[in-house]
Amino acid sequence: MIGIVVVSHSAALAAAALELAQQMVPRDDVRVAVAAGTPDGGLGTDAARVAAAIDEVASPDGVLVFVDLGSAVMSAELGLELRESVAPVRVTSAPLVEGLVAALVTAAAGAPLETVAREARGSLAAKEEHLGDTPVGRRRPNAEQAVPARIDARLETTPATARTLTLVNPAGLHARPAATLAAELASFDATVRLTNRRTGATVPDASSMSALLTLGARQGDELEASAAGADAATALARLESLVADGFGEAPMVEERGGTARLETVRKDIDYGLAISPGAAVGPVVRMPEPILEPPADATLPESERASAAASLAPAFTEVRAGLTRRAERLTDERFRDARAVLTATAALADDPALATEAAELVTRLGAPPARAVWLVLGALAELLATQGGPMAERAADVRDLRARVIARLQGELEPGLPDRTEPFVLVVDELAPADAALLGTTPCVALVTRSGAPTSHTAILARSIGLPAVVWPSARELRDGDIVLVDGVRGEVVVDPSQERVAQASARPDLVPFDGVGRTADGRRVELLANVSGGDDAAAASRAEGVGLFRTEFAFLDRHDAPSAADQTVAYREVFAAFRGRRVVVRTLDAGSDKPLAFLAGPREQNPALGVRGYRTAHAHPDVLDAQLAAIAAAARAERADAWVMAPMIATAAEARQFVARCRPHGFASVGVMIETPAAALCAAEILAEVDFVSLGTNDLAQYATAADRQLAPLADLTDAWQPAVLRLIRLVGEAGAAAGKPVSLCGEAGGDPALAPVLVGLGVTSLSMAPQALDEVAASLGAVAFEQCVAAAAAAAAAPGPREARAAAASVLAK
Ligand code: PEP
Ligand code: MG
C-alpha cells in the first residue's frame, strides 16, 4: 500500500486537512506523514523534514506527496533529492483537501500509486461540475463519449447484472458515503456502473470517489446499478446493502424524502391524493422502464455475429412501422406537432445506413446488437447536438429512436408513452412534464402517479386536458391489465371496482354551463379566465372570458436551443387567434425548478426552486427575454390581440420596474408581474406602483410561504391555498390592489377551487384564471353568493387556525 506525505507551510493546516480526510476512511491502514511548518513552530516548509517524512512512509508501492502552495513545491522536490529511501515518489498538484480525501480512500482500497495520483488530481471534478466551471479540455467525458474509445478494450465475456436502488440517507451521496462506497467496491473484481435516474449523470466505474460525487445523488434519488466482472453479483449485493443501510448514517426524523418519505405516506395515509378531477375506469398500463446503456463488456463469438447483425435491420423496420402507425392515428389537427415528431423519427429509422453501421460493429468487433445501436446512434446524437440550432433539436429524436430499437432487440417494451389504441389508465412513478404534454395524443383515460402533488406541473397539465389523476403511494403494486377506477375527486384508486362504486364516482351534480360572464349573485363582475399552455388547449378553452395565464414555457420544454422568432410567433398566434379581441395574459418563460428549459439552464443548483428561475434567468439571458417580448408583440399585432404580459418569480419592486422598462419599448399597454413569493406579497403596494396589474401565483406562493415543496405529496396539506398564512398574503395583495385601483388577478390552481372562489373575491381578487374544466363550477359557486358574503367568508377563513377550519368557516358563512 502506498504512503502519503503532506507538505504544508502550516502544521495546523496539515493536521486539519488530514483530520478531515481521515474521517472518510474507516480503516487506519494508510501510512501518512506530515512535513509542515518550520522547526521553531513558524510558517514555512523544510526540505529535510520532507525527506524524513517520505522515508517514514516509504514502501515499494510508492509515496504520493501533497503540497500546499508556492515554496512547498520546491521543498518537496528538494526533499526528494535528500531522501534515503528508493521507493517511487510522485509530487502531486492535486488540491490539498479534496485530493487528500480521494487519495486516502483510494489508497486504503489498495490502489497503485498511479491510480491514487489520478484520483487525487480528479478530485475537484464534482465541485467543478456542480459550480459549472469545469476547465475546458478537462471535462469529464460522459459515458457516451468515453465508450467508443474503449469498445475494443472492454469487450469481455462476463455477463452484467443490474438493479435499481433508492438512496435513503438524508444527505444523499456526499463525501463520506461516497468514500465508503468507493473503498468497498474497489475491493471486488468488478466494475460497477451507476446512473442517477433524476439527473441522468453516469459514473462508469463506481470505485472512484470523485466520480461518485459527480452523480449529485440526493436522498430519494434512484440509482441504476449494473456490474460486470467476476465479482459482479457480490459487488452489487454489497452495494445494495450499503445503500439500504443508508451507509450507516442515522436517518433524520425531520427529513422527508425518497423512500423514507414514501413510507411516511403509506403509514400516514392509506388513500391517495386527488390531483385532477373526474373519474374513469380502465385497464392499467404501466409506463415502460427507461432503457439503460447496454453493458460494454460482452463480445459475441465469431459464430454468432452474422445472425446477430441480421437482427438489426428488422428491429429498425419494426420501430419505423410502429412510429408511422402512431403518427397516422393522430389525425386531429391539434396533434400536428406530435405527429410531425413521430414522422421525423420514423424517417430516421428508415435510414438503412444506421442499421448497416451498427451491423458492422457487430461483425467486426463482436459487439452485441443493442450495444452497437447504442454506440452508432449515440455518436449521431452527439454530432447533432454539437451543431446547435434545429439540428440539435433532432438529437433528442435520435436518442428516442436508439432507445426504441434497443428495446425491440432486447424484447422489451419501447419507452415513452405506451402505444395503445384502446383506452387505458397510465400508471407511472413520476411523469415528466414533456411526457405529460403528450398524454392528450393517446387514448389514456386517467393517470396514476406514485409521486406528485396538486400544484405540480404534471397535475396542472393533466387538469388542462381534463384527465382524472391521483397520486397513489402504492402505484407500484398495480399490475398491467388490472381494471381500476381512478376517482380524481376522492383521490382513490380501486382495483376491480363494483358497479355501484363506479356510478358513485361518475355521478356529477347537474351544472349550469358558464355563460361567459363571471359575477356574484348581486352582479359584481369577476372575470373568469383560462390557464392555457398553447394553441391546443386555448382552442378548447375559448368559452372563458380570456386567458389569465399563458404558460409559454410549456411550448418549449423539449428545445435545446432558444426557439426562433418565427417559431415563437406561430405558437403565440395560435393562442391569440382563439381569443381574438379578448384579453390574453402572456407570461414570459418561467424556466427552472421542475420546468427546466435547456436553453436557459445555468449551473446545477442545490435548491432549484430557490434558484435562478423565472424572471431571474433574464439576468444571464437578456437576449432570450427581449426576443420573446418581440415575438409576443409581433404575434399580437398580427392577430389584433389584447396582449398583456407578465413576469414570473418577482421578489422586489426593483425587478418589477426593470421588467416594465424592458416591455414598454415593445408597445405593451398592460405590463404586470406575478405575485408568487411572500416578499412580493408583502411589498405589493410598491410593486403595484410600478406595474399595471398583478397576478397571484398561489402554487408557488403557498410553496414559499410554508417552505414546502409543491411537488411532494406528503406536504400537500402545507401547500394548500386554504392555509391561513396564504390567505392573509392574498389579502395583503387584494388590499394593495384596491388602494392602487389596479387589477389583482389569480392564476394558481386555487383559482379553480369553487369553494375558495368566493373567499378569494372577498380577499380582493378581481379576476380568476383556472383550468377550463373548472369554469362551470366556479361560475356557479360565485353566482350563488352576494359580494358581502364573500367578504365575510374571507374574513372568517383568514382568521381560522388551519385549512380545514378555514374551509368550514367559509362554508358556514356562505350557507347563510
Ligand atoms: C403559480 O405558481 O401559482 C403559477 C400560476 O405558476 P406555475 O404553476 O406555472 O409555477
Ligand atoms: Mg409559479
TrEMBL record:
SUPFAM superfamilies: Enzyme I of the PEP:sugar phosphotransferase system HPr-binding (sub)domain, HPr-like, Phosphoenolpyruvate/pyruvate domain, Phosphohistidine domain, PTS system fructose IIA component-like
Keywords recorded for this protein, A-Z: Kinase, Magnesium, Metal-binding, Transferase
Record-annotated HPr domain positions: 160-250
GO biological process terms on file: phosphoenolpyruvate-dependent sugar phosphotransferase system
Cofactor (UniProt): Mg(2+)
EC number: 2.7.1.121
Catalyzed reactions per annotation: dihydroxyacetone + phosphoenolpyruvate = dihydroxyacetone phosphate + pyruvate
A GO term, aspect molecular function: phosphoenolpyruvate-glycerone phosphotransferase activity
A Pfam entry, by short name: PEP-utilizers
Residue span(s) of domain PTS EIIA type-4: 1-131
Domain of life assignment: Bacteria
GO cellular component annotations of the record: membrane
EC category: transferase
InterPro entries named among the record's database cross-references: DhaM_N, HPr-like, HPr-like_sf, PEP-util_enz_mobile_dom, PEP-utilizing_PTS_enzyme, PEP_util_AS, PEP_util_C, Phosphohistidine_dom_sf
Function, in words: Component of the dihydroxyacetone kinase complex, which is responsible for the phosphoenolpyruvate (PEP)-dependent phosphorylation of dihydroxyacetone. DhaM serves as the phosphoryl donor. Is phosphorylated by phosphoenolpyruvate in an EI- and HPr-dependent reaction, and a phosphorelay system on histidine residues finally leads to phosphoryl transfer to DhaL and dihydroxyacetone.
Family from the record: Belongs to the PEP-utilizing enzyme family.
Listed NCBIfam families: dha_pts, PTS_HPr_family
Subunit text: Homodimer. The dihydroxyacetone kinase complex is composed of a homodimer of DhaM, a homodimer of DhaK and the subunit DhaL.
The protein's name in its UniProt record: Phosphocarrier protein HPr
Provenance organism: Gryllotalpicola protaetiae
